[in-house]
Amino acid sequence: xxxxxxxxxxxxxxxxxxxxxxxxxxxxxxxxxxxxxxxxxxxxxxxxxxxxxxxxxxxxxxxxxxxxxxxxxxxxxxxxxxxxxxxxxxxxxxxxxxxxxxxxxxxxxxxxxxxxxxxxxxxxxxxxxxxxxxxxxxxxxxxxxxxxxxxxxxxxxxxxxxxxxxxxxxxxxxxxxxxxxxxxxxxxxxxxxxxxxxxxxxxxxxxxxxxxxxxxxxxxxxxxxxxxxxxxxxxxxxxxxxxxxxxxxxxxxxxxxxxxxxxxxxxxxxxxxxxxxxxxxxxxxxxxxxxxxxxxxxxxxxxxxxxxxxxxxxxxxxxxxxxxxxxxxxxxxxxxxxxxxxxxxxxxxxxxxxxxxxxxxxxxxxxxxxxxxxxxxxxxxxxxxxxxxxxxxxxxxxxxxxxxxxxx
Length: 408
Fold this sequence. Notes:
Blueprint: E1 19-20, H1 27-31, H2 34-43, E2 47-49, E3 54-57, H3 60-68, E4 73-74, H4 103-114, H5 117-141, E5 143-145, H6 146-163, H7 171-183, H8 189-195, H9 198-208, H10 219-228, H11 234-247, H12 250-265, H13 267-275, H14 280-290, E6 296-301, E7 305-307, E8 310-312, E9 317-321, H15 322-325, H16 360-377, E10 378-383, E11 388-390, E12 397-400, E13 402-407
Parallel strand pairs: 1-2, 3-9
Antiparallel strand pairs: 2-3, 4-6, 5-13, 6-9, 7-8, 10-13, 11-12
Helix pairs in contact: 4-10, 5-6, 5-16, 6-12, 7-8, 7-9, 10-11, 12-16, 14-16
């Protein structure tokens, strides 16, 4: 059953339940979501989205509470609008994103070993060298597209290299990530267009996640070695490589692109970073809070429960607005201001709880390196044309960002 043909719940709502009639997946809302986010936050800690017959929260506390309580609000029914208990998934579920313990624990243990602090630290020198080479070229070019030339070019080089993927056809990773994150939404134009290419890009990515397609010594090879040791199966190793390549590209592309946009729009913040490039990691965290690449995720009630004083029946979908929670004034003063001197700890861009993004260390390192290297060598990021957002049912990413780099 597609999400647009599912029966919209007509359940009797508890007295006083705030009802939101707006469609958060409408294209005009996806392009500029923060007005609706503020309306939902002010309406209450939990609201009812009448168009889809589901619960939703746009406040930080409730979003974090749901994400941490995996026993009550499960991921195994899918982290999109589709309910895997009643609707078949379009592809085999992610072993880390769309499972619960004990399956999730076993898969995450294998991933955590492959992405240990020691393993990530070993990648740093190569990541830095690639950033230097990229910036050398771009400073000669001067007029660039910040998305294509930095936000896509850098992660699409360093992370697949680290996984052990060959160079040919890497653009399919972008198409596949766009597909997966669009499918989490309702059956709108974005979802339908993404699904139209699902067979083609799905076959490509699974073929390139096989052991024979990966180079020795990479993260992907480490996962297959975990299968050799009996921690996971060989089939599961391939699915975990797929999860890495899905979540490790689009979200990092979004984070870096959003960072360039934030600093181009707020040159005084770029001046602050240039005075102390060592604050790049901290600055990247503020970008993730302010313009979260992952805006929404769903959970499903595994049992009848209560959230924010409201009774929730078993098997009901709850839409968590992570990007809205990151701008909750109950959690941060002046939350709608981009301020790299802020302490943004606790933001929800990587999620929280046992399903917190397992690859966050790599994403943080990529964002920190590229911002630090740019701050050391670029005096000003001049935006020379309008930024264009790439609409997606889950992600908030840019499609284009014309920039002129003024060398220091």
